[in-house]
Design goal:
The chain is α+β, with helices and mostly antiparallel strands. It contains eight helices and four strands. A hairpin with a 5-residue loop joins strand 1 and strand 2. The radius of gyration is 18 Å and the shape is globular. The two termini are about 30 Å apart.
Length: about 210
């Protein structure tokens, strides 16, 4: 099925098990709020923007409100079905390239917000897919860093996320490095570098 679809289906299974009011790592969002976000992202891109235009913002609020009123089973089923045929996110390579990271992070947003969560067993296919996604987007995530940033896996593979006169290395698995890039506080990573520089990078990611 691919990593993107595996993560989608596992997230939907978790949605069904926990219900619509469970907490997530997304600030202020319940599982219902997260499911609505995913449906809007894939089915209603016309309602996904709106930060700069009030008309679009109003439409987005209206659409999200309508989706939030759906029965939980129907809302989860819309997430499970994936993008409609007209959405490029439904194309195999695009889906895998974009949604692997999106759905892994949101799956962990739900998993890690629950008491007693544990890291999942290693999965080489998932790790490689997420490393590819992170390698493509690292400069976007860390481009505003005041210092250089290098992401390093345990096997020694690295990706330069930002050049700078001083460098902070962030060490961890592909999965944990991706979570750090997305600003998720429970990411299990370690750092090499000047303490003040490390704090500056940490503050940058907490602000997302």
């Amino acid at each position: 099925m691919g990593v993107a679809n595996d993560e989608r289906q596992q997230l939907c299974d978790l949605f069904e098990r926990l219900g619509p009011e469970a907490p997530t790592l997304c600030h202020g969002w319940s599982t219902r709020d997260l499911a609505v976000h995913l449906v809007v992202r894939e089915h209603r891109p016309d309602a996904a923007g709106g930060k700069l235009l009030k008309a679009l913002a109003d439409r987005g609020e209206r659409v999200r409100g309508e989706l939030a009123q759906l029965q939980w089973e129907e809302l989860v089923d819309r997430v499970r079905q994936g993008p409609p045929k007209w959405n490029p996110l439904g194309i195999g390579a695009v889906n895998e390239g974009v949604n692997s990271a999106e759905y892994y992070v949101h799956h962990e947003d739900v998993r890690r917000a629950q008491p007693g969560w544990q890291p999942r067993p290693e999965d080489p296919e998932r790790s490689e897919a997420l490393w590819k996604a992170l390698s493509r987007t690292a400069r976007y995530f860390y481009g505003r860093s005041p210092v250089g940033v290098v992401l390093r896996r345990p096997d020694g593979h690295e990706v330069s996320a930002k050049n700078g006169p001083r460098t902070v290395r962030i060490l961890g698995s592909s999965e944990e490095l991706l979570l750090h890039a997305f600003g998720r506080k429970p990411a299990q990573v370690s750092f090499e570098g000047n303490e003040a520089d490390v704090l500056a990078v940490e503050d940058l990611r907490r602000s997302v």
